[in-house]
Design a protein that fits this description.
By secondary structure, the protein is α+β, with helices and mostly antiparallel strands. Helix content is 29%, strand content 28%.
Length: 182
């Protein structure tokens, strides 16, 4: 395992048709179990990301490192997507999902670098005041990552597909946890 995270991250909008094969490999990989698409066919992935692309309050992006796709990022307005009626949203709340591409050559610190890049991207929008996440309660690895970038767990909530740990991270919490000014 390497110990450095080389290269710079950039983000581009996801193209549901052009990126479908890549996404299919990622979301059906055993390490993506919490993405809940293990049995998805290519057409299922295309359909899901076409739905997201057409949604006014849900957006998907491909994260690149030195021009190569390495992660998937979704942002959403939790008033309309994922969390309606499950918590009291505040102005400036933005929901987030991310998935790091599977690899045979893991790089120590890479996933932390990705979530940090995702948070920087979200907070680049001046309207974003707080990031909201709702990972599965049993996804302890992502809970540790979330805590590392400043998320604070608020409550367990029950969604149709899972029991989730609702957590929040403000700009100030992110900056304090990471030293990254946003």
């Amino acid at each position: 395992m390497s110990t450095a995270v080389p290269g710079a991250f950039t983000v581009r909008p996801l193209d549901p048709l052009a990126d479908a094969e890549l996404l299919h490999r990622w979301v059906t990989h055993p390490k993506a179990a919490f993405w809940m698409m293990q049995d998805a066919k290519l057409e299922d992935v295309e359909r899901e990301y076409m739905r997201i692309a057409a949604h006014e309050h849900h957006h998907a992006f491909i994260g690149l490192r030195d021009g190569e796709p390495v992660f998937l990022m979704e942002s959403y307005d939790p008033r309309y997507v994922e969390l309606p009626g499950l918590y009291e949203p505040e102005p400036g709340d933005v929901g987030m999902h991310f998935l790091v591409a599977p690899t045979d050559t893991p790089v120590r610190g890479f996933t932390l670098a990705v979530i940090t890049a995702v948070m920087r991207e979200l907070f680049a929008d001046p309207a974003a005041r707080r990031v909201v996440v709702e990972p599965d309660v049993s996804n302890t690895a992502v809970h540790r990552l979330n805590e590392a970038v400043g998320f604070v767990a608020a409550d367990k909530i029950v969604k149709p597909e899972k029991e989730a740990l609702l957590s929040f991270c403000t700009r100030a919490q992110f900056a304090a946890a990471t030293g990254v000014a946003v």
